[in-house]
Here is the input.
Amino acid sequence: MTYPAGRIHAVLFVILCGLVLLLPFVVYKILLMKIMCFAIFAMAFNLLLGFGGLMSFGHAAFFGLGSYMAAHGAKELGFSAIESVVFAMVLSGLLGLIFGWIALKRQGIYFAMISLALAQLVFYAIWRADFAGGENGIQAVPRGMFLGMVDLSNDWNIYVLFTLIFLGCTLLVYRIVHSPFGQIVKGIRDNEARAISIGYDTARFKLILFVLSATLSGLGGGLKAIVLQFATLTDVHWVTSGEVVLMVLVGGIGTLAGPIVGAAIMVVVHDYLAWLGPWVMVVQGSIFILTVLLFRQGIIGTIGRKLGISL
Here is the structure.
């Protein structure tokens, strides 16, 4: 017996809602919110790679810019937490528009390398910027109030807000993927020449997708700066660009649940094995190798294929 994909996705979303409601009673809330931030980042990257077929090696530029702009907005410009995050999203989206216009003039490995080069420019610019604090980054970012009434310094208050944003972002990504726009993007990914012959302006669709991905990446970075109360050069470093690739590949490229699972695994490994120092990257690499060997389509992708359902 087969079930409609929409019903399966609805059940998965209900399970996700249950998890985010129950887990804070047994797991450290800050860790859960960090997972949500990186899950949003991974979902944003999966939009580009999994559904658009575009490999970017420089997506940390948008995540990191979002982190720094939210931190700067909250600490120096007097913005509220939400205003700071919106500020971060807008600037990340604008940067995505510029980068996309440049990088999308090439395809394949050339597109990937251009994205990496542009991201390194952002890294250097932030490193040298006076407001960014150099190697120390921006510390002690205030969480402030929500709507002037809810104190976000309380972990429960900010957790509820983050949960609503995370679930809303998940629904948004689902809607994008299953919209006419999403179907066209997947068609371009599978056969761009055919899409062009039908009459679609493929360059415009890919640019819109790139901007959407950059904006959501900025959202993840901005939320991370608010909840952890700091922004550092790690956020915009090329290693972070590599980590989000691992998150998507481990979870399952081109799936909806995969980036969330991949982000959870990588964040937990990174946090609980932080005492290993640089060796934690070896552990992450080993997880990736095992995933490739045991789950060719990522954990969620392989499970979905074996069950014959779309996850």
User: Anything to note?
Assistant: The mean pLDDT is 89. The longest strand covers residues 145-146. Residues 119 and 140 are 26 Å apart (CA to CA).
